[in-house]
Structure to design on (117 residues):
């Protein structure tokens, strides 16, 4: 029994372990690991040397563990300023990001050491 919950591809309807139907927007590019439909690495599926079968990858917030955090756009500069490096390549929900901004009003790099007098 596998441990994770899964459901069929919401776009093309295949089951986990199967290849997506051509043109499915959930298919991952074998080269850059981004969305195949939009990354532009390949012009059509005959150029692919292999395809990545569908496995549902759960998207969770790296701080609170909320599932499927809503995507939101943050300028790269701001992301690096408020999000500590261990979390920078994770997903965060908007609330956690706002929380980090409050914890580090000047960015985490400018946190002062209070206990050394
Ligand atoms: Zn699909
Ligand atoms: Zn690509
Ligand atoms: Zn969160």
């Amino acid at each position: 029994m596998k441990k994770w919950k899964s459901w069929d591809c919401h776009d093309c309807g295949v089951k986990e372990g199967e290849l997506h139907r051509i043109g499915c927007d959930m298919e991952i590019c074998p080269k850059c690991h981004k969305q195949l439909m939009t990354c532009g690495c390949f012009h059509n599926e005959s150029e692919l040397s292999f395809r990545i079968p569908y496995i549902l990858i759960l998207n969770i917030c790296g701080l609170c563990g909320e599932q499927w955090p809503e995507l939101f756009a943050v300028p790269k500069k701001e992301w690096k300023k408020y999000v500590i490096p261990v979390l920078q390549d994770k997903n965060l929900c908007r609330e956690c990001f706002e929380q980090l901004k409050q914890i580090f009003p000047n960015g985490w790099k400018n946190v002062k050491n209070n206990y050394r007098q």
About this structure: Residues 9, 11-12, 14, 20, 24, 26, 54 surround zinc ion (ligand 1) (CB under 6 Å). The helical segments are 36-39, 76-82, 85-88, 94-103. Residues 94-103 form the longest helix (10 residues). Residues 25 and 38 are 8 Å apart (CA to CA).
